[in-house]
Structures are given as C-alpha cells and as structure tokens.
Amino acid sequence: MLTAQLRELERDGNRFKKSLSASPPKVEYSLTKYGQSLKPFIELSCSLGNTHVKHIHGNGNPRRLLNQKSLV
Predict the structure, then answer these.
(1) Residues 9 and 28 placed together within one structural domain of the fold
(2) Which domain holds residue 1?
(3) b/e per residue, 11-21, with b = 16+ CB within 10 A?
C-alpha cells in the first residue's frame, strides 16, 4: 500500500525519488515545489483533525493524529 501511495504521489508531481548507489541500496524522497505548495492545506487538515480528537475525547489528554512539525 505504501509503495502504491508513493508511486501515485510521484505520478502527480508531488514528490521526487532519488536512487543512490550505496550498499545497501538507498532511496531518498523529497517534495517537489508543487508538493511543498500543498503544505498549508496539509497543516490545516492536521489542525482540524486534532481539534476533532479533542472534541471527541473531551478536555482530558487528547491523542494527536499527526505532529505538524513532522511535515517540515
């Protein structure tokens, strides 16, 4: 499933795949300029999701869906 998602992101121009000749083989992924332009929308989605979790779980110790800092 992850491979299918990564291929879809690459096909749509959201990410870039760089294969490095190393032992063991190594692949690096990065966002394209277009992919980076989507970052504000992804952060907003994270914020809305986290607000929803807080609402569902009350004022206790809500679980976070995603750490927005991991999107940098």
Answers:
(1) yes
(2) 1-35
(3) eeebbeeeeee
